UniProtKB/TrEMBL annotation:
Source species of the chain: Thiomicrorhabdus sediminis
UniProt name for this protein: PhoH family protein
Gene3D superfamilies for the chain: 5'-nuclease, P-loop containing nucleotide triphosphate hydrolases
Coiled-coil residue spans: none
Family: In the N-terminal section; belongs to the PINc/VapC protein family. Belongs to the PhoH family.
GO molecular function, one term: ATP binding
A Gene Ontology cellular-component term: cytosol
Chain ranges of the PIN domain: 7-148
Pfam families: PhoH, PIN_4
Length: 468
């Protein structure tokens, strides 16, 4: 290997299983793939899971770069930039890809069994570190235990950071911002206002440092009670719309009223037909599912904006898996949709109705609410549907893209989740598809996001959420 100034990154199998494009994400530095990693990729290529698809994509990329290359070319490293799928997105110069073309042996502690694949990769890393003492050799792995073992044997290791949307989940866009108490004194003189039907708009001057996003909420800290939604920011002007008040009984949505300002913001987004995508984040008991379902029923059954409600979620158990479930697709999904059933019970439990009337309502709702499995979403197109993706924190960015791109004309997609309750072993708060889509959609005029913080389920649930 040449060019000692460059770093040499040894990729663990889980990095390529997680992101095949990792091959192109190390800029000018070189990449090394051991025979053990190739063996593990070969073992994981079968199946229809996301991991298997990623393995097959990795194998195709490696095959593309290695085709027509001689053994001498492989020994001296293969240029990565010539096979980048998106040359315009490639860095100015990518490094080389090296393979284990000869045995690389190093002494490992006797307590580490030599037959384990992870230990073979550690052995390869230590051999490369010894072979190139002037070069920064780093093992890149998403396996925490692998990083711990790597540090214990003296090999530098790092997590794969390129899949992180943010450095810290606390930096995630919340969807709202407090206005300082002197906001109107500062901007009131140059502010214009007008009405369009029942809607009230304001226009104000903003400077180039304005960091407001479309459909971001502005909440006043003083007693004026001015709550507005940013509709656009361009050419030094910001247009705000006074927020509709869903806290009163006469403005209820399917019998549900907002219990706090956060829920009021959420209902403004959910009931706005101009907003095609809404994401609601929040801890347990903040009302995410209830608000989404009430808005869906109101706009499907009363206003006829949508012709059907579709609910789905990632089927990851909290405890032991209960195994295979009998029945049709909808019957198999029913045990996973307890949140839907619980909230439907709240929405249909009106006093004064007979059992027959309640049963008729349930039958009507069952015809308009469909429960779908994510496994059968690929290739479908949903027209004029209100789609609710529950427990979206357990989706990868690729799965999130697959689901959201199913939306056809006149369809609204609502993502619900709590990034502090991730059940998938392969995702974190900064790599989940929910964080990814909130960050990527925040600048789009037809999307909106709100992070709900105030629990409304019960005083017991709120205390448990805060103290356990």
């Amino acid at each position: 290997m040449t060019n000692e100034a460059k770093r040499l990154f040894i990729l663990d199998t889980n990095v390529l299983m997680h992101d095949p494009m990792a091959l192109f994400n190390f800029e000018e530095h070189d990449i090394f793939i051991s025979m053990t990693v190739l063996e593990e990729l070969d073992a994981g290529k079968k199946g229809m899971s996301e991991v298997s698809r990623n393995v097959r994509e990795t194998n195709r990329l490696i095959d593309q770069i290695i085709s027509d290359a001689s053994f001498e070319d492989i020994k001296h490293g293969l240029e990565l930039e010539r096979i980048h799928p998106n040359p315009e997105k490639a860095s100015s110069h990518l490094g080389k890809l090296f393979f284990e073309t000869e045995p690389l042996l190093a002494e490992l502690p006797k307590s580490l069994p030599s037959h384990k694949a992870d230990n073979h990769i550690l052995q390869t890393g230590l051999a490369l570190k010894s072979q190139y003492p002037d070069r920064n050799v780093t093992l890149v792995t998403k396996d925490i235990n692998m990083r711990i073992k790597s540090s214990a044997v003296g090999l530098h290791s790092e997590d794969y950071y390129n899949d992180r949307v943010l450095e810290d989940a606390d930096l995630l866009f919340t969807g709202w911002e407090y206005l300082d108490s002197h906001f109107f004194e500062t901007h009131g003189q140059n502010m214009k206002s007008w009405q369009d039907g029942s809607r009230t708009f304001y226009e104000m001057d903003v400077d180039e440092h304005c960091h407001w996003f479309p459909n971001q909420c502005l909440i006043s800290e003083n007693d004026a009670g001015f709550n507005a939604i940013v509709r656009s920011v361009e050419h030094g002007k910001a247009i705000l719309e006074y927020m509709h008040d869903f806290t009163h009984e006469n403005h209820s949505v399917w019998g549900i009223t907002a219990r706090n300002s956060e829920q009021n913001i959420a209902l403004n987004f959910l009931m706005d037909p101009e907003i095609d995508f809404v994401s609601l984040l929040g801890v347990a008991g903040t009302g995410k599912t209830l608000l989404a379902l009430a808005a869906a029923l109101e706009q499907t059954l009363d206003q006829n904006i949508y012709n059907e409600i579709i609910m789905t979620r990632a089927t990851i158990p909290v405890g032991e898996d209960i195994g295979f479930l009998p029945g049709t697709e909808e019957e198999k999904m029913t045990p996973w949709m307890g949140a839907l059933m619980d909230n439907l019970e709240v929405l249909t439990s009106s006093d004064g109705y007979t059992d027959w009337e309640k049963e008729s309502t349930q039958q009507l709702l069952s015809k308009r609410i469909k429960i779908k499995s994510m496994n059968f979403m690929r290739g479908r197109t949903f027209q004029k549907k209100f789609i609710i993706l529950d427990e979206a924190q357990n989706l990868t960015p690729k799965q999130m893209k697959t689901l959201v791109t199913r939306a056809g004309e006149g369809t609204k997609v609502v993502c619900l989740g709590n990034i502090s309750q991730i059940d998938s072993p392969y995702l974190t708060e900064t790599t989940t598809g929910l964080t990814y889509i909130v960050d990527r959609f925040k600048s789009w005029n037809h999307s909106a996001h709100i992070t709900l913080q105030q629990g409304e389920r019960s005083r017991l649930a709120e205390f448990a959420s805060d103290n356990l």
